[in-house]
């Protein structure tokens, strides 16, 4: 029991080994190794490690253990290298490079492969120096010295001579000897002296930092030159003499290592530099230096430079200065002049080695300022009268509702306008005139006085606007105090077209108009004077009518507050009035339309000329705004929220999770669906046709393969697989049923493609499935005693051209998909609808078929492959029909004259069947029958 | 008229930084809050006890929802993923990744089988809790802008977006209804009878829409809501509308006549979230000031 239990468990990890076990094993191994093994033949000997474990064992127990048992082959095994478990001793970060991952021998190889100059071509001795340096470094590492770190460069002498030295040695030069021409060169000396003098003249002002080392080199050689003679070759001075160590830095320490540019600076400031040991050369120094600079001849002073091998960077560091001097030497006078001319440019513009150009193409283009006309007065004067100023500065009277009496209101407005135009004189006059008239009480502070005041102010305002619109803009910045007209004038804007015209698209315009008027009535009634700006007279021929028209307009703009003396048209009939009203409406519309086109300039005169009643053309800006915003709001309200409805397809899984039935179950995905529907509406009268179409496209899409009839093995396979085959959906059956002979044949002849061995089996499978289904159908038909009409090809079948062939492959594919779906749904429909017996039959078939075969989901592709295969096979074998069982066929044929479709289906079944000769007896007969059917069909076609 | 929850009974303190969401659980005995401190906290608001903290989010927690059986939590936030938690163990069962941007809102469906999330990436995503798939079941990306809020009914997914639409995805009918409000919607809330949807717009207006017709029934104004994602809700009787304000006030409107019934200072800063108790007259409010307050009648 216990062992059984142990077997059930799965163990992970390595069990802890008891010590005695390992010891005993070890002992055993030792014993084996010593004596036993010798007796065992070679093929039976086992390799064991010191622990006594086998070195070679099966792959499942770890395979070959190279050195370390069941590990990666290292002592640490799988333990990550970077990991150290100790808390205190943290894992060090290992800087990884290539060598980390290389074995010793690989590393050795790597070294061998590294590129370097061979000694043979070591022209400058760099490689040798490098090797020497690395060598010394190695040594340094091996035996730690008092001075840590790498040895200073100075201490390491290059192992080999540079090629130059070697060359010179060959030429007769000896170490320690200075280099110069062997014979005294008088001519050379003279030339040098001349140049010295010349340079001393030209560059005395220049207080440049003396390049001490080079200078010294030069000095050295120059100093020696006079002394030397032919016979006695002078020794070259060692570097330490020329460059005595004057600082307190450690040996080999170079404070300017990273910044050589400071070196020069430092040297120039060193006090001892000039005095120490070179005093005799001091007077000559400048000249010499320049001279040296000019002639940086390749050969000259090499000997001196040679010793400075390690510091040769200094030679190059001074290179720039040389060039600068050269330039100065070449044209000193010119430079001097330019210095004076363009000091600023010199200071920060020019680079060493470059000089500023004297002439530049880059000239600044200048534009003259615009010419001011002579009569231009820089200050604008406003011809402002005293009165206007006063009016503008005075606080506008509060807005008051107009008197209830419309007549009075009109009167007040009229007077106000006149007064505004003609001045207060008119007011005085009218006051005197109408002292007794109670209507004119408003002039004396009576009824409507406040309103009059307001009107007067407004009228004045307007009048002023007319004359000096721009002045107003400055003085009255606030829009509230401005009338709409004035603002319109100022801005030159088009006033609101009485209603918001651009919303017309969304909301019926009339509605908006009405709405707005109602709004203005309710909310801003006292100020709603949307007067017609300009009274054009469309009814000039009929003054009375014109008057009525004006009255109408007034009423209209007053927003429905109808005066009692309504236009004086009482004598007119109701019908005539209505007609006239319509006319007026049209005219008003026309007038307003026209009005906005041209700005009414003479409006004030017009208004004045007309009878009292039209005071202002606009309401004040504020009210207009509120109206507009109100209207806007209303519009917005009417616009939003906007509801739109779209089709949306929930994922089937989502429906499932929400416990709902997928509304699109079994329907094709939305985007292609539109097309497919359209297609089917246009060209597909029924699903049979669609099926046919699909067949065609199938054939087009997939490479057709011809089934190998003679392949017995395949047939065997087929038989084996029949039981597993599952018809998942009735679609397949339908497809099989609706296959079309003639089309198939055509297709097959079109596409003679090589066999596809992989699909053969599938083809055979489906074929057999269909055969079985066909048998069922047949037997069912018999049982039900259905009369099936003779096989009759569909008329469309032959008449219909095949447009799909011309389509591109993609389209075909798409359509194919759509059709498939469509058929699918149709099939569903058919099966569900129990009206026709076909459906019932189908249902039966479906059931049975699925009963027989299940557990398999042939994919779409597979199925289509099968189909295509089937067709081709069928067509290829169509010729070899037999006719022996025609009697039996006839009988059946008669019994089937009712159900054409069914007949068709059966045919397809049988056709498939044909390919498998080794099938059962019943199948065989069916096969023959198929052949008859085929013939029959052909007959029909003929 | 039942009493409105205007009396502060408890203050739930524990979140560091702004609390972005506060939600009652199904029976109203507990509540969950999520905030900028990347934690989700479970409280008993009635006793004012902090029960548990759920930590796993890498960024702020923007929304949280608990299943009706109180066994699972889903949460979302700035780290672009949804977390599906086990309540008792406090472990993350699953993480749903797929949103391209921050996830604004998350909801379980009725059976807690699907989580629907609304993201800044203009999409709604439905995730399966039943299977082990971590791929979304469906991605709805008809929105033109960030989707701010999502509500689920038995058959519909309703979501409000900054593009100004409240979209209803009817799974049963297979259609999408889009109600364009013209103003960015930052929160939607269903009425308890399910006939209306309350949408909080960024023009400082709450709008009540009729679900069936898409008609605007009422507008509620007075508060400030211009730049924050702030919740709104209806009381249990659907008699009042509650919404927070950016100045820390809480507004209670009458549903029908849109008058401000009550207005009081609930927090010192923006009221980010309001959740109403499913049965009692009790509500919790969360604020940027880091506190969660419990209000009772």
Main attributes of the structure:
heterodimer, A: 942 residues, mainly alpha, 6 domains, B: 297 residues, mainly beta, 4-stranded antiparallel beta sheet, DUF1604 (chain A), SWAP/Surp_sf (chain A), SURP motif domain-containing protein (chain A)
Describe this structure in words.
The complex is a heterodimer of chains A (942) and B (297). Chain A is mostly helical and 942 residues long. Chain A folds into 6 domains: 13-77, no CATH class; 119-154; 167-317, no CATH class; 388-479, Surp module (Arc Repressor Mutant, subunit A, Orthogonal Bundle), CATH 1.10.10; 501-639, no CATH class; 705-809 and 835-941, no CATH class. Chain A has 41 helices and 1 strand. With 297 residues, chain B is mostly beta strands. Chain B is built from no helices and 28 strands. Chain B has strands spanning 7-13, 19-24, 31-35, 39-44, 49-55, 61-66, 72-77, 81-86, 92-97, 103-108, 114-119, 124-128, 136-140, 147-152, 156-161, 165-170, 175-180, 185-190, 196-201, 205-210, 216-221, 232-234, 240-244, 249-254, 260-265, 271-276, 282-287, 291-296. Chain B has a 4-stranded antiparallel β-sheet, with no helix packed on it. Chain B has a 4-stranded antiparallel β-sheet with strand order 2-3-4-5, with no helix packed on it. Chain B has a 4-stranded antiparallel β-sheet with strand order 6-7-8-9, with no helix packed on it. The radius of gyration of chain B is 17 Å and the shape is globular. Chain A binds chain B through residues 636-637, 639-651, 653-655, 657-664, and chain B through 109-111, 113-114, 126, 128, 130, 137-138, 140, 142, 154-155, 166, 169-183, 207, 209, 213-216.
